[in-house]
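Notes from hallway chat w/ T.B., transcribed later so I don't forget. T.B. wanted the structure written out for a chain they're using in a teaching module, and asked if we could keep both sequence and structure tokens in one place. Agreed to drop them here.
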Amino acid sequence: MRKLFVLFAAAAALTTAACNTVAGVGEDTTAAGQAVTGAANEAKGN
């Protein structure tokens, strides 16, 4: 359980460091959503 918490804390710290502003978080989320949509469309054959 402790290892999981440490891993989660490290991931949260890296995520926070990667996007310093709320706008940055929004841009990262948008990019991730577009990547998932693109992958789904490719898998579906569109």
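Follow-up for T.B.: Residues 31 and 37 are 10 Å apart (CA to CA). Might be a good example for the class.
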